[in-house]
Amino acid sequence: xxxxxxxxxxxxxxxxxxxxxxxxxxxxxxxxxxxxxxxxxxxxxxxxxxxxxxxxxxxxxxxxxxxxxxxxxxxxxxxxxxxxxxxxxxxxxxxxxxxxxxxxxxxxxxxxxxxxxxxxxxxxxxxxxxxxxxxxxxxxxxxxxxxxxxxxxxxxxxxxxxxxxxxxxxxxxxxxxxxxxxxxxxxxxxxxxxxxxxxxxxxxxxxxxxxxxxxxxxxxxxxxxxxxxxxxxxxxxxxxxxxxxxxxxxxxxxxxxxxxxxxxxxxxxxxxxxxxxxxxxxxxxxxxxxxxxxxxxxxxxxxxxxxxxxxxxxxxxxxxxxxxxxxxxxxxxxxxxxxxxxxxxxxxxxxxxxxxxxxxxxxxxxxxxxxxxxxxxxxxxxxxxxxxxxxxxxxxxxxxxxxxxxxxxxxxxxxxxxxxxxxxxxxxxxxxxxxxxxxxxxxxxxxxxxxxxxxxxxxxxxxxxxxxxxxxxxxxxxxxxxxxxxxxxxxxxxxxxxxxxxxxxxxxxxxxxxxxxxxxxxxxxxx
Length: 527
Description:
Oligomer: single chain
Largest sheet: 10 strands, mixed
């Protein structure tokens, strides 16, 4: 009997120690103002830092009697160690926990591993939460806010839903909306919209309806209960090509290279448009002619409009093209009194060039005249009808170099201006006839071509008034070797040949003398 009592005592001591030694993490004493334990509803939350949400882990009543030691609300935490069998709940592991009784809460960050009890805390009715035995704490009055979130996904918004994100939480919601709750201490929060496909149609983000904000992310800084509607448009592809090598088109004010990619029209717009401008393309001047759709003629209107479309579109812009004059870069030689030399930059599509000229006589532009055809690769042409003068001296002349290529001949004119005089060595009578019959020179001039020469050079000269004219040639010693002109002349343009076939190579001086004008030029005979 004596040994039985001893064994019973030892069993009781071991059982008692075993029970109280079982590991539990949170011990809470809920008491009245007289420090007596009382039964109250208690809520436990874990804080999710990604969604910025207090996730409910437990709701229930604690007893008005102590569970263990001084605590009438005891909780285990999963994975920390063994669990106490009389705990109210085994909680998932979080870095932060919130304990709430009524509207009083305590938010606690706990450092686990403090022994078999990691944190204890007292709640006194009427006074609130006391300080915890471990970790940091913030307390306050519970204030739950409501986010009402909606998606308006296009003209079919009543029948579809899409994603909206609250912090890191993806939410599928339509126009009827959904309510999400966040406690005031968890603010600020960020709501995100994103472009997305819904119902087989891409949806383009537009705005937050409530304030017209077009930023896809919206930060709610202060605790509040907002209603937020994300508005989208249905987005349909606009596939545009041309009959050119590439080419450009305009879609809703933006420029796209063809064939287009990532180009769209939208069901919230009544004035979607596609336009095909006239353009330069690979050295061709291209003029819009018509649109094709599905390989057939569609419209000759340069711009197509689409009012709240409900499907994708596909068109080809068809252009007529001719070889371009743009960028040919016409320039002129710089040697005055010599024939005018025209130079240009070759167009890689050209097979030949047509040289055009027109002349301004007594203030009136004469008819355009094609004066030559030049093969590609040459890049220059010498107009033997006119010699080059200083700028704004003499006759105003304009030239145009027009490229031609297998039927894509351009009729467009891009004239370039130079000044000159009728040249003594004319190839045809066109310029000479105009100048001799219709215009009186405005000043005196003398020149020669070719120079150097062998054995003949032509002296061209012009007289603004009637008078006696003498033109003589001298050697370098001043000896007269030829008299070319010695007679009365009327105002006009003249030419005379100097034949030096019986003379030796060297420099000669050609001199003109007339009333009020004397000038000498050098001639170089090179045999």
